[in-house]
Specification:
Distance between the termini: 95 Å
Largest sheet: 8 strands, antiparallel
Number of helices: 3
Strand content: 35-45%
Radius of gyration: 28 Å
Helix content: 10-25%
């Protein structure tokens, strides 16, 4: 009789554990093979001339670049934006952008302690950064929006010199 109760008790204890086993997936109409990712809209270009052809407008790269710049990559969102990525091949990176319109095209959504509006030539430029170095500069000329983003940040004078040459 004791064996009988031991077996029954074991079965009673085992039933909840069996209920925790693998269940069949819920009937979900989503087919994982049909999920898609957003395609990268940027097209790599080997020259500013090709970028201008694809974008429908020109952009100039300033001669006054930081001395650490050793690599240049040119990209375009066809008919919309030109982006030039400058880097040292490792940690330092800077993006120069130009697009039709007047929106902030920097792509930088960080919070910064310092914000300043400065005048460079006839342009009013908004700078954002921390501790005397600015990571983002944005402005527009009425037809085009411009942005400079530097991961490490730049001094206002160096940034102003670059901005003056970007057209």
């Amino acid at each position: 009789m004791e064996k009988f109760f031991a077996v029954v008790l074991s079965l009673i204890l085992a039933l909840p554990l069996a209920a925790c086993g693998a269940k069949e997936p819920a009937n979900d109409d989503t087919d994982l093979s049909e999920k898609t990712e957003i395609a990268n809209p940027f097209i790599s270009c080997d020259s500013m001339e090709k970028a201008a052809e694809l974008a429908g407008f020109e952009m100039s790269i300033p001669a006054a670049l930081p001395d650490w710049v050793t690599e240049t990559e040119i990209q375009v969102i066809e008919g919309q934006m030109i982006e030039v990525i400058l880097s040292d091949g490792e940690n330092n990176m800077m993006r120069l952008r130009k697009a039709a319109g007047s929106d902030d095209i920097s792509g930088d959504y960080s919070e910064y302690a310092d914000t300043a509006d400065i005048t460079v030539g006839e342009r009013t430029v908004t700078l954002k950064g921390n501790e005397g170095k600015y990571n983002t500069a944005v402005w527009n000329d009425g037809d085009y929006a411009f942005a400079v983003y530097s991961a490490e940040g730049l001094a206002q004078d160096a940034l102003s010199s670059m901005i003056a040459e970007i057209k």
